[in-house]
Amino acid sequence: MKVHKLEELWLIIGVVIIGLAIAITGYQAFAKEMAPPSHIETIDPMKVSETPPFNKPGLKKIGDNEYEAVMTLEAFKFEPQKLEVPKGAKVTFKLTSKDVVHGINIPNTNVNTMVVPGHIQTITQTFKKSDRFIMICNEYCGTGHDTMSMQIVVKE
Ligand code: CUA
To answer: For ligand 1, is residue 74 a contact (CB within 6 Å)?
Structure first.
């Protein structure tokens, strides 16, 4: 078989790039122990309702206009269904799923993350203006996926 010089060159470049990608991600995963942030805290997905703080989902004040919003997700609802926070509130959402993989997104904010059963996900957002927000599920989770949402009201 006769391989053209340029073809051979590009074949070598391609293999080197693939090799580098595997080496870099392998180094990060095994030597540096890098993993998705959701793997930091785990939870038994079968016992979410009995495990604090998820046994009492809701808003908790943790500082000066700082809040922690503990939320559970299941097909096809968020718990709680509505949150009210004052303007300027810095809210750390602490989320977990009771069943399948869900995702959260608050349109017009940077809040966008997956919520995987067995893991506790946290994401923080400061609500600067009084407004109404909707949190939607953005990971297909079943027939009711499109109805899965909750409300966040930012009061003056
Ligand atoms: Cu939950 Cu889609």
So the answer is: no
144 lines ligand 1 (CB under 6 A): no
Ligand 1 center from residue 129 Cα (angstroms) = 27
Model pLDDT for residues 127-144, shown as the tens digit of each residue: 999 999 999 999 999 999
Spatial separation of the C-alpha atoms in residues 79 and 70, rounded to whole Å: 8
CB distance 94 to ligand 1 below 6 Å: no
Q: Residue 78 Cα, ligand 1 centroid: separation in angstroms?
A: 9
Give CA–CA dist 95/111, Å, rounded. 12
What is the average pLDDT across 4-8?
Answer: 95
Q: What is the pLDDT of residue 39?
A: 54
Structure tokens at 79: 């718990």
| Residue 74 CA, ligand 1 centroid: distance in Å | 8
Task: Decide: pTM greater than 0.90.
Answer: no
Q: What does 55-104 look like in DSSP terms, one character per residue?
A: TS-EEEEEETTEEEEEEEEETTEEESSEEEEETT-EEEEEEEESSS-EEE
- Kind and range of the H or E run holding 25: helix 5-26
